[in-house]
Amino acid sequence: MIGIRGCRRSLAPRAAAATLLCTVLGATAAWALEPNEYRQVLGLDSRKLIWFLAQVKLFFAAFVLGVPLFAVLIEYVGARTNDAKYDKLAHEFTSLLSVAYATTAALGGLFAFALYGLYPTFMGYMTGIFRDVMFLYALLFFAETFTLYLYYYGWHWLSSREPFSRNVQWIFKVLGIAALVLTVVFFLGGFGPQMRGDTRAFMALLYFLPVAAGLLIIRDRKGVHIFIGILLNVAGTAIMQIANSWAGFMMSPVGVDKEGALTGTVWQAFENVLATPVAVHRMLGNMAFGGLVVGAYAAVKFIGAKTDEQKAHYDWMGYVSNLVAISALIPLPFAGYYLGREVYSVSAVMGNNMMGGDFSWTFIIQAVLVGSLFILSNYYLWTGMTRIPGAERYYGYIKYILGALIVSFAIWLTPHNLPLTGAEVGQMGGGQYHPTLKFMGLMPAKNAVINLIILSTFFSFLLYRRGNKLDAVAISTQGWMARGVIVLAGAAAVYLAGQYAVNLFLMKPAELDLPADRAPYFRVIAWLLLSHCAASIIAVLLALKDRGKLAQNLLMAVTAFNVVLFLGVYGFVVMEKASPFLRNVAVSQFLQIIACLIVVTAIDVFLFRGAREIGRLQWGKIPVRSQYALLALTFVITMNMGLMGFIRSGLRGDWHIFGVMRDTSPWSYTPSNFTMTQMVSLSVLVFMVSIAFMFWLGGIVEKGNAVKDEAGARAPAAMGAGD
Amino acid sequence: MSAGRDMAKPRVNRFWSTVGAFVVIYALVKWGIPAASREVTGLPFPLPVPGALVFIYMTLAVVALAILVTFSDEYLNEFVGPVKKFLRGDYGRVPRMVVLVAMPLLVGWQVYAVTVPDVAVPASLRIQHPSSNFPKSFETLKNPLASPSDADVQAFIEQAKANTVAFIPQVAADVKRWREANAGKHALDFIPTSPMKKFVAALKSDSVDQSTAKAALLEKTLFEGRALYAMNCRACHGDSTAGDGPMADGFKLRPINFTDNGTIETIVEGYTFWRVTNGGPGLPTEATPWDSAMPEWKLSLTEEERWKIIFAEYDLAQKTPRIPESH
Fold first, then answer.
1. What is the average pLDDT across A328-344?
2. ∠ CA(A212), CA(A217), CA(A223), 5° rounding?
3. Does B155 touch chain A (CB under 8 A)?
4. Which residue of A184, A723, B124, B164 has the lowest C-beta tally within 10 Å?
């Protein structure tokens, strides 16, 4: 055991140091000026080798960055509720992380060596541009390593709930308030370099705010431990943001001219157009991925569990993991839409290649995978309802939810441009599109059904939550906190939809190169948003008047009508008459869905808090099939990540850095979808086998600890008997 | 859930309701959608759901039914019960024998039908907008004729005042003939649209303003673009750009319908220009078997003529080119 731990301790800093060394060596300015040079190792295709290493490294990195996000949250919930089971769960999550961390760092080192060795000119150039950032990147690894080990190994050491003295608590409070003020000032643009709004929001919400919140909650050693966990997340997120900025720079170079000479600042190059959209997408993706990998661990443990206690524990662990994954999955399509839009903004060629060109069929594969994620998540929730006494009251809804999901999935999968046989072409009159099914392949239909999928999944979750609850609790009896949160949620919803409505009212058709007579199309959407604001206000008022269920039903019905039915049809009218405005319609759909989720969740939290129960939830009494669904979810999301990695990177075509540095290697072509499936499958297989091996290793350590604990418990008893 | 209510309501067994649902979905996909499509469009073709989609839809149906049957042990037992009873011979040994013999034969027949070689053109994945070799230099191109500069408009006014407006050679002869037959009329009267009439009237009353002149200039560009379209593109793409020209039926795939949403309005003008310029031969290799039959128009039309055609093409289709997203 000591060997394993020692190995873990020593590998990560070594790999980080190796990366640092590469960075220093690579920073030689002359490298950037050499003609492109490519090398091979063992005669292998260098591009495929880099592809494989990058993908496997990213799988591990996503896991290592995703898990702490929710481990800290769960630990905080445990500390707040004084419930030891949350603390134990968070610790178990972190133990998995600790095993995978060293491998991630080692893979990072290998990946860096491979890049510098096989693509020296390209990496020389990148190092020339980003050398300052690369040093910071390497140093952040030390920060992540130290915080991770302090977090994991200091778990018991920092578990005391004995409060610090008042003075010490005050110091942390003052520091927290100062950090909070800094967060607000930073968010409002008070300091820091010139940056895009999304980058500023990203940094304020993920760096400044968590640190401020962490300082504010420190009252005892446990608080300090949670704060260390927050610092671990900040370091991990910063590492990810930096690496993303390089990937973003390769797609959307900023601050350099066509010859690659730095004409702007390193910050401009760092904060390129795609850096933050990729980072936002990856944050959510990491969280979903981390949740599902841990869910797979819980599923395997559940399947092999010998006792009811073990089954109950791993069932619960799987449930929490799936919940984390769903929470991240729901906003993920919107983050993807935002990223896609920004890809178009960088280059219409890239955008065209993505959605209508070489990569269009890969998006059908992606639709299969994403749809499967939602279907499997719902299936897991429904099987989970069988262990909830009283949930059978809601079984009747399942077939309707399933119907909505499957029909939506079918529409989502229907391509505009169908694969046809010669005979089918003739039977369709020789055209390229089916005269009616073609509509399912267009954006208005796709946007409507993905929103319905999200809404249906959310509805499943609501049913799951109220499975064993007898009656809703009057909000008026839940105290000022409940009323305050619901009102705040309502205000947030009204702000989200309302500000966009105002924007649309003020928008001039000329801004979209449209004639003035197209303004009514903008107004319709603006009024629709206002109707949603009104529905949110009414829902809040109803909830405050103890009609919470009606409030939820009303808001969900209005949202479903506006977003799915109305805009699903009206989107085609907009497409026909004011096509450029269609992207604004998509934004309005997103805002209404998010607003609905915020208000309905806020009401739901208090509607069933302390409600009478039909029976206790019977953890462990779930059909074993559900665990295979959890396993399938992990495979699907891993495949999806591999696929999307291929698309994101492949969009550059034959450029290392789009429009700046051409790829002149023998591998500068877009691989076929067949090659893609081979490479992605290989990466997924290697990751799965590796992570299974690591979990097994973790199990050995756990078993050793359990045996030691048992022996320790027996020894005093034996001594007592002897005495 | 009340057991009493369930007992009172006669229910089809879950196995048969599942099989029934599958059959209904298959019937809808196989015959329902084509029938509805024929009814809606009025087209004289069978309009079947393509095989690839039937496969996708039926796979989803199987997944959905499997989910519905297996999410609870109770439902699963109810579903599996009749199957177990059947296999035990509780419904008779002869039916069991018939099914057990028929099933492998049916599967074998299906496998044979799928794998036996035939001479049909295979289904293939087509790429809608092949663009891997689309040069970056084209992506920011804007139609120079769509927004004439003030100087261009001024020059047009001067020419119009002097009645020396030049038309493209392809229509110049027609204009000349028309002018000979309509002596005393302004050359621009040849284009009898309201913006042009307004401009000519303003010319006569010497009250020309910049915006009227600009609208007239765009009208002239559009007219010339339509003429060029009629001469070069109409045969395949049709009068209204719907892909229904007199030669359209001669292609394995008819030319694309530009009035269809999701075609030319989803691409930037630079892409349209590149496609018109380089035609089918200019497509990247992965475009095969899309096999566009469009000629390389750069060989027979000037750059200005190609832009005029594109201007007219969007106008005829009543579409606008994609506007590049801003950061």
1. 89
2. 115
3. no
4. A723
Q: What is the full DSSP assignment across A559-610?
A: HIIIIIIIHHHHHHHHHHH-GGGHHHHHHHHHHHHHHHHHHHHHHHHHHTTT
Q: Does the beta carbon of B73 lie under 8 angstroms from any beta carbon of chain A?
A: yes
Query: For residues A428 and A423, what is the distance between their CA atoms, to the nearest angstrom?
Result: 9
The pLDDT of residue A29 is: 44
- On the CB side of A664, CA atoms within 13 Å amount to 9
With residue A655 as reference, give the H or E element that holds it: strand A655-657
Bridge-partner residues for A613, per DSSP? Answer: A469
Beta bridge partners of A662: A655
Which positions in chain B touch A403 (Cβ < 8 Å)?
A: 64
Say which of A353, A429, A432 has its CB closest to residue B132: A353
Task: Write phi, then psi, for A613 (nearest 5 degrees).
Answer: -110, 145
Rounded to two decimals, what is the model's pTM? 0.86
Tokens 């229910």, residue?
Answer: B11
Neighbours of A403 (CB within 10 A): 13
Strands (E), A30-172: none
> From the candidates B9, B78, B132, which should be mutated to test the interface with A, based on the most A CB atoms within 10 A?
B132
Best of A251, A364, A434, A654 to substitute, by most chain B Cβ atoms within 10 angstroms, is A434
Domain residue limits, chain B = 9-115, 136-317
Half-sphere exposure of A7 (CA within 13 A, CB side): 9
Tell me what the mean pLDDT of segment B228-243 comes to.
95
Does the pLDDT value for residue B324 go beyond 80?
A: no
The tokens for A262 are: 């730095």
> Can you read off the two tokens belonging to residue A285?
């993706």
User: Which of residues 252 through 271 in chain B touch A, CB cutoff 8 A?
Assistant: 252-254, 256-257, 260-262, 265-268, 270-271
CA B133-B135-B140 angle, 5° bins? 140
In chain A, the largest separation of any two C-alpha atoms, in whole Å, equals 98
Give me the pLDDT at residue A260, please: 86
Q: How many residues does chain A have?
A: 723
User: What is the ipTM score, two decimals?
Assistant: 0.83
pLDDT tens digits for A371-397? Answer: 999 999 999 999 999 999 999 999 999
DSSP A711: H
Measured at the CA of A330, the angle between CA A324 and CA A332, to 5 degrees, comes to: 100
Q: At which residue do the structure tokens 């065209």 appear?
A: A352
Question: For residues A395 and A405, what is the distance between their CA atoms, to the nearest angstrom?
Answer: 16
- Nearest neighbour of A345 by CB, restricted to B60, B76, B326: B326
The structure tokens 């499958």 sit at A681
Q: What is the pLDDT of residues A152-197, one digit of tens each?
A: 999 999 999 999 999 999 999 999 999 999 999 999 999 888 898 9
Rounded to the nearest angstrom, the gap between the alpha carbon of residue A29 and the centroid of all alpha carbons in its chain is 37
Looking at the predicted structure, is the pLDDT value of residue A707 above 80?
A: no
CB-CB under 8 Å, B50 with A424: yes
A151 Cβ contact partners less than 8 Å away, ≥ 6 residues apart: A68, A94, A225, A228, A229, A232
CB atoms within 10 A of CB B206: 7
